[in-house]
## 1
Amino acid sequence: MGAKFEIGRIAGLPIFIDVSFIVLVVLWGGQYFTSGSTVLMSMGFLLVVGLTASILIHELAHAVTGHYLGVRPSHVELNGFGGLCYWAGAMPSQAWRRIAIALVGPLANFALYYVFEQLTELSAVQSNRFVLQVTAYLAVANWYFGLFNLFPAFPLDGGRALEALLGTVLSPTTAKLIVGVLGLIAAAYLAYLGLSGSIWLLVVAVMLGLANYDAVQSARRPPWQRWN
């Protein structure tokens, strides 16, 4: 998306951060970091770390599943859209493999939701309000991360899974076109919700709209001009 740099490797897999990821950090922690309160700044730091880790785990779930299902991951990138797992080769031809690779990401978020929910309940029992607020926030965030990624839109996991599923009964071009149109509808809906004052939703709506507009245009081009 923009300039990016490698921050390390996990089991040999390079992890990159795009400068656009800074936008997410500001949206997540800006109000905490500028509060002037040590407690709130600490909370903001933990939230940023927890959300970053949640996105990274989501992408690593894709990478590990892809590796075992026949496609080698190239690297993982954290960016303004959250994150992406890049591949060193073509995706498997079998639809079920592509669907599994796509859906394991949201499943990882739902698993994290469960973990943070358990930590929240434990913190409530111990009356630790600071930890309770952090874990409750991260639980809700992972729940919505998982749901959002199931949207039938590119480049989200739900869109990729639906494209693979439709491709079993329709042509690849038609499958891509259908998901692209659904993605434009999803982007319009998010933009409508964002008009209530959510800059985050408006940014996501624009990025989602552009990605799915490109997909629709690509599917409508002559075969020799299409990209995948």
## 2
Amino acid sequence: MENVLITGATGFIGSNLIPYLTERGYRIYGHSRNPKYLQSAYGDCLHGILTDCSAESLRKNQIESIIHLAGIAHDLSKRFKESDYFQVNTQSSCDLFDAWKLLQNQNGCFVFMSSVKAVSDQGALDLDETVKPEPVSAYGRSKYMAEKYIIENSGDTMYYILRPCMVHGPGNKGNLNLLYRFVKMGLPYPLGIYDNQRSLLSVENLCYSIENILRKPIDRGIYHVADSGTISTREIVDAMADVLGQKGRIWNVPKSIIEAGASIGSSLNLPFNQNRLNKLTESLTLSNKKLLLALSNPLPLDLKTGLKSTLESFL
């Protein structure tokens, strides 16, 4: 039975991963800025709570593996300064990796939750692990710098850098929820003229991948994590309408009108702005071939089944 520390344990991924790994026999330790909430939220699922992640604390609690989820997410509201991203996503990640290395534990591994944004902030098709990273945003650059540090200072340790696309599931509070509420109101989706393709990742498939990394001796390195297959935003809207028992209403408003509205929204800091438009309309697909080859098994949920499960949880 392995002792595993999960940082950022109160976040969306952590709230799904903790019970998932506990049910499979792992002793889970959590770290969060709010330990009281962590205890009340997970109770018997947690074997212990760490108030700091120093090497001494890791050694005292006999931590073998770390799943590092903590960090500042891509922030469209611009609440954070650029320096915040590098302090939290880069420096704190490097410090934790260094502390874990001091344990000289040959049995455990270090799993760093990075992002596809560490590769590119723009839309792209079939991104795999061989693509040269060219992040632009502070978020993407901060994640990429942490990746570089882990790789360059890994020695012979077992590290895994995961680059997921958009993760969804019960309890998700991202752009998928905003689109769902829009469809639920019966409003027509005006962006039907955009023909895009997206990769998605159900949180169950992510948990499955992480558990297999902990359990199997797969090659260390970088892995892109996504459900198999792709889907368009139009298809997502139709799936939402179907779950709601409605008929999808999709309008093909001219791009010139949409772009003008997004530009005004950016100037006035409105919910519909250029960033939001890009999120909804750009194509971004990941190749998960390297991961599937390493796992030697398909992911448990196909893309559309996982999406339907998430949408039904919104009900």
